[in-house]
User: What shape does this take?
Amino acid sequence: LIDAADAPQNDLDRQLGDYYASGMDLSAIEASGVSAIQGFLDAIDAVATHDDVVALLPTLHRTGIGPFFMWATEVDHDDSSRYLLWLAQGGLGLPDRDAYFDETPAAVSLREAYVGHVAAQLVNVGTAHERAAAAADAVLDLETRLAAHHLRKEERRDPDRTLNRHDLPALSTLAPPLDLPGYLLSLGAGAATTVNVENPAYFAALHEVIRETELDALRAYLAFHVVMAAADALPAAIDDEAFDFYGRRIQGKKEQKERHKRVISALSSDMGEGLGQRFVEEAFPPSAKQRAVDMVEEILAETKMAPEP
Assistant: This one.
């Protein structure tokens, strides 16, 4: 990757090298501030109605930002030769549903810390200090109401609950105010004719939860989820705050991974096929492949020659 950044041999090298170099250029990241997500933040600030919130979701979801729910493609559970689009419950900043309702001291303390974390990140992207605490409380309240409609972890492991194929007419009637067929079209998945809905009851209830939430709270919620999704690519104040809460507090980690390892991990996620291609070219040349083929052929030959037991 360093070589690809310094002296790319082809277009793929240039893409990989530019990605790696940009992730490692901490000075440029600090100088850029939140400009990488400013377009999303501006779109959120422009939200004027509850319908605007719903209309903004495909734009956010296409970029890997997941307020309210998530989408993914998996092998079709009815036909393994095909893929199936899933719509799944989501939109929570705490680890799972139970974190919002557990009344043990540890869980209460975690929620208090979460409110502080949300407030800190909102301040980091421009929310006034005097408004941040109230906005963070509103985010927790909204997510608690969303969590009330979530399946529990053990329920999500039950295929009888989570395998719920919907064709487009059924999807339309599941949650009419969400216009889920229109959402798929805006998402770029207009070719999908059937969708698996992990938790139909969640989607049926979602619009009412949105409609009953004040717009200021919705804007704070959306802005926080943008920051949460992009934190590790933003300035140190945001990245460190995210690690303090999710890394240290929730996962028990003591320190961040080295920067180059984190950038390589992100690159592997975003351009894994291209990175793999270049790695194979460097580490597994044709001569190595031929040695492996020769070895297998010799093993097979020895197996054929072995006497019957």
About this structure: The first helix runs from residue 2 to 6.
